Amino acid sequence: MTIKETELLNNLRDESILTLNIYNNFRTIFFETCSDYITEWTNPTLCKFNGVSWITLKNIEGDFSWKNISNTIQLIKNVIPSLTFNEAELFDEFTIVKTNLQKNQKIKSFNTLDEKWTYVFQTADIDGDFPNLKIVVELLMCIPGSNANVERIFSDMNNLWTDDKSRFDVKTVKAMLVVKHFFTEDCSGFHDFLLGNKKLLKHIHSSEKYLPKESKTVILNTQASTSNTC
What we know:
The chain has helices at residues 3-14, 20-41, 66-79, 87-103, 113-123, 133-141, 148-160, 170-182, 187-195, 198-205, 213-229. By secondary structure, the chain is mainly alpha-helical.
């Protein structure tokens, strides 16, 4: 246990918020969770995503193959079993797109995926609207390229839940993060929205957004007891 941990634990123990056993239980759970997270993200099964690189259209001859698209279809079906494709039509769509890409090198002049695929679908000589291939492309483009957004939310959470604001209820912190990251209103629009909602204003000014000190102690003891039982 580090010096900082010991100091914090002594302060919490003096305030009758936390005991050494409860702290050790939480400490163990935290490190086990971190270990499981790292193990999951370094799991070899993630290699199955290697076959979706065809969507970048960087290697038409190598990556953009029917085998890779078939593997992608299987991957999607594992996640969304109810989703169906007409594989005969999909093969025709793939063949037309690949033929056009081999003839037309203009695709290399585009920088982003959405520009590339917009050009592909607009210029391909086909009757219809690529009903199958479009679904595959749209689903793959929904996959985040990194965990930067998640890390950004964690950072904002740490800024909100500081030592000076440690009594915020979990639901309060969650609501603040949702407002910050997912509300599309500008400042004046959000201000008008709040002024027009008296019930919400009442909740904002109330103490419900804080977790009482005694409740925090009960929660910690309950969670620790649950972890011991498990």
